[in-house]
## 1
Amino acid sequence: MSTRPALLEQIPKGRLFIGGEWTDSQSGRTLSTINPATGETLGVVPLADATDVDHAVRAAHDAQPAWAAIPGPERGERLRALARALREHCEELARLDALNSGNVIAGMRRDVDWAAESLEYFAGIIPEIKGEVLPTDASALSYTIREPFGVVAKINPYNHPIRFAAEKLAAPLAAGNTVVVKPPEQAPLSSLVLGRLLQGILPPGVVNIVTGDGPTTGAALVRHPLVRRIALIGSVEAGRAVMRAASDELKTVTLELGGKNPLILFPDVEPDDAAEAAVGAMNLNRAGQSCSSTSRIFVHRRLHDAFVTALLARVRSLRLGPPELEDSQVGCLISKEQYEKVLTYIEAGKREGARLLLGGSVPEDPRLQRGFFILPTVFDRVRHEMKIAQEEIFGPVMSILTWEDEDEMVRQVNDVIYGLSAAIYTHDYAAAHRLARRIEAGYIWVNIPGGHTLGSPYGGIKQSGIGREECLDELLSYTQVKSVRMRLNTRV
């Protein structure tokens, strides 16, 4: 059976999506993209250079005035039409992302659904793009107008390829901007399929897709003078690079970056519930490659032993397997580079004295030998200063830290450069409210193992990012405020 979904066959090979058409790259350079579970090459895509990026940005710039002039309700209907197209092709898109990213197919289906729901959500709140009339004296009128930036650059990561490609179009398009998307170099194929779906739904040039890497394609996009608004989802290092490049022209930037997120377990939680939360919040269906994974588990000393027993039993029951198979529960890492990075962190944990309870190696299953699979890994007796407790691993590695004193626990929770999310498990809701205020993170879950709600602002503090997404704030962030003061007396 072919590993290439049928919709992918409709994409011209080796092309960029610019101005509503499939266009040859001027650079002639290419990138191969693989199935990380097998090493099989799935396709070859262009490595767009500055000339290609300029072509895409100018197409977006030329299309923007007409797109912004379309009434908001009609723009919203175009977004809803794209949501319908995503749902119609859900199985093909989910399978393609499973093959190209190594994430299990069940999670990829949910990604398609989330992208469609996001498009519908932002289509519905377009009327909230409105100005204000300001109090003044009777002889004058003061009011504000919200206007789009123009061309928006979207730079996406590999852990949610189709979700981010489609979902992150919603707010800028709803606000009247046009977009140039740079898909992840490791998993670009579903973004190109999105270009195929866009044809006939959005006018030419409203969305453009340029494949390539960060140093060449991403850097050219960030530095282009016609790009005034940039949004990146990625690592802290990538965020710093984007901010440096954008600073010359003082561009507006949103960054959703990494996390070293805590799961805090109080002694009143049932061990099995705590273990289920720890596994669910680690996003192992993506092999832990999620910025919101709760990789630091702070368990109260009275719960520790029972929790560890339950956690190990729960982790041992998980099924690693080819991501496209329905019964697979744990996927693989995206690349050899990431695979080797995670193994290096595991060795660091052992070297610094953490106790390896489970995993820490590659699976013995012969079906998985060609892929970048690492067994879900559990360390105990982790100290706060250890590398595995301080740095984002972006892999299936859980670190258990034990606590008794709440103040000291909170100090350790906050004593990292990140501040994206945190999860608290307890039946003491006074304690939960207290901790939610004390923890330095942008998104807090209480007795919920992760997940987002549209309308609830998502984003980090400290070096986990700038800005909020998935809410009205995100929509308004793609507009600029203009003030108008007018004298009503016609005599000047």
## 2
Amino acid sequence: MSGAGSGRLAAATAALLVIGGRGEVAGQSLESRVATAPDGWVRFAYEARPGVCGHGDWVTFNDGERRVRRGGGSCDCVCEEGPVRIEMRVRDGVPVDLDADVGGTWRARDDVTDLGVVPPAEAAEYLLALAERARSDVGEDAIFPATLARGVETWPRLLEIARGEARMDVRRQAVFWLGQEASERATEGLTSIIDDEDDLEVREQAVFALSQRSEPDALDALIRIARAHPEPRLRKRAIFWLGQRGDDPRVLDFLEELLAGGR
């Protein structure tokens, strides 16, 4: 990052810390602070993990390798390395709307309660707990920003949510972001969902998530599913995604085996 960019980041973080110092209440959890906030907008910020930057409408991963659009429009702005900014509309202590951005500035809002900067681990746990219990679109919206928290390994909680009793859209989001986690253990978790989960759509999402991973184990798992899984739809999906990776010799060998067997 350039010296000018580092200076802007430091200034933004310092400003947030000043705001946070006014908003913090000693001894209260983030959950309780949100629950006791007056009706209106509640916001807080936390550090983003390395490789994540943005400018409001855009979030970029791994130095531009992947980009996620989070709003309308784009600009030629500096991609800022955080913070992650969360704004929630709260009614009777319950979040009913959630916006997440990286970098940029706060939106102009009326009736805002600013909780300042919070520890990334506390933010991630709060957002994942919110996703797990929410009965609205807030649950699905909370998954993505939780994965951005600096120094937090989110895949175990994502796996719990994917296997749990949350709304179906939340479970699918958990499976998708589980597939993005850079850990071989996440691949193991995805294959266990495919084998053990009852809901077929969640299992199909897990097959897709496996297809997005680059580890050899993920490709091996896709081939195993395509070759012998008892659910025809999962075999079909695995074969489809393997076809998108046909430059790998193992994929070509498998497709040849499959086609030759069908003569």
## 3
Amino acid sequence: MQARFIQIHTLISYPAVLLNRDDAGMAKRLPYGGVSRTRVSSQSLKRHWRKAQDVWALEAIGAPMAVRSRMTVEREIMPNIDAAPEVKTAIQISLAQFLFGEKNVDPKKPESTDKRQALLLGQPEIAFLTGLGIEAAAAGDAKAATAFLEAALGKGEGKKNLAALKDSAKLSFGLESALFGRMVTSDPAANVDAAIHVAHAFTVQAEESESDYFTVVDDLSGDDAGTAGIFDTELTSGIFYSYVVVDVPALIGNLGGDDELAGKVIEHLVHLIATITPGAKKGSTAPYGYAELMLVEAGTAQPRSLAGAFREPVGKAGGVAEAVTALAKQLVAFDAAYESGERRAALSLCEAEIPGVTAPISLAALATFAAAAVRAG
């Protein structure tokens, strides 16, 4: 039976790390339940899942991918266009103004990207715009090239913009957009609603942090101390709860109605959530960890987070087993009150019981369970 929603709950433990920093270089935080928690932003989590490089990487699925950048025109499109310098400049300005807005592109400094916001474009869209640029170059001069692109990308029934391409080609906007959505201010009809909703992860305990003082030693100084610099950084520890919701019909719709592809995407996503670490300072903290609990729920009722299980912080000495017990207690309360009837499966490294789960299974089996719940029939 195909689920309406897939909910993925994860507990993962990290010691002495700095997973996600704020603008001051400190660990991101979240006040919850009257105490401060260490936090990892949803943007950070999604970025690491998007860019992961292993057998379960999103790009290993084989679907068209996307590029998020302010420099897509300059780095991805213009190198493929052969024309006189003034013609190339005219094409660059026209394409950049279409993608990022006229106010954000200075014709006198077309190479400047300071006013632009990074835009997520699918590889088919990049190829489409490259083709228009090549056609514009064939127009002969800068004025004719600009006129061609204004006609092709401007308003009217004949326009060849991203929205038109989105409606005519499967996954023209790239797999990442199909999963996590995108906003195109210059072409609102090309916007894509996110099918996968990701909460900020936070520690189930009150924050645990310290300032790490360290020095850099100069091998050639000749000084006994040999100190070339004195620094400090924040390190944190904790068990993080994360929560992800998959809107199954929205995902299948974004994937052009292909539920087999949707199942494959979710299989990969479950592996990525369980094993991919969002981490700054990897060279000095090796912040690698696997999920110690991953609970997957498949059902038709509206989703609900289990974050309330940790409104009262787990004791500082409490481990994953105590966190799982708190999560299970919250689940029992929800089941009794709402009787929403989700099907459940879980990976667990501890012996705590979870309602609706007969026995823990492997990550591969859990990913298969989630994928099957997405496919029809």
## 4
Amino acid sequence: MILDKILEWAKDNDNIVAVIITGSHSRNDYKVDEFSDYDVELIANDIESLTDSNDWIYNFGRVVIIEAFDEGQDYPTRLAIFSDGIKVDFTLASKQRVLNMKKNGLNGLYNRGFKVLIDKTGITRQLEKPSGAPIKQPPTEKEYLDSINEFFFEAAHIPKYLARQDLWVVKFRDWTMKEMMLKMLEWYAICEDPSKDVWNIGSHMKDWLDNETWQELNTVYSKFEAADCWHSLLASITLFRRISKTVGDKFHLQYPDVTDKSISDYILEHME
């Protein structure tokens, strides 16, 4: 088992202070199966010794691919896929990550659930117990309006690219609309039940979304073909409008009707 190999390596590595897992494996989640990723945090004395070279990852199995993320991250990460298909997301952090949570309380990720697998110095002993509370929170007014404005900004581009038969760009713009749609769906899901377990990137969406909305999502994806793209564009706007207004009503946020009407009228005027 890959986790056993990681722990065996960490025990013999003086640089590693603690090994902590987060994510579904830390919660014994009912969704855990043979395809579930491992989220492993390595608390180290010297992070640079882990970021300078990725050779240490090869101790755990035959590596297929590694992605390294350093810039723009709170902590460096290494995402690795092994030959058996198992993916491990490594977060590389100093002891300060743990010390900050001992002082200020658990962050959202740790509060969702974590397990300490190795602690050589006792650094994790006074960490709070996770509550298991979902991470998803209601939007601020800015988050709400930014998502709506971005959705309609991208939607406004699609008629001209359809007129040019520039279908790849249509899909490019449409994907940004889908990203805004996902944000709104997450907020929409917690309207009636703030404790609902809303997963990242739409995972297990059928479990946390109501059936009506799930069925409506069948209409917002299109083939690589202009007429079908028109159909999915209008369906996407209809669904996005409905869930956005529900979110706005629930959290006392003003839906920008003028923006919606202006862009929607423009799109309808330019339909082929």
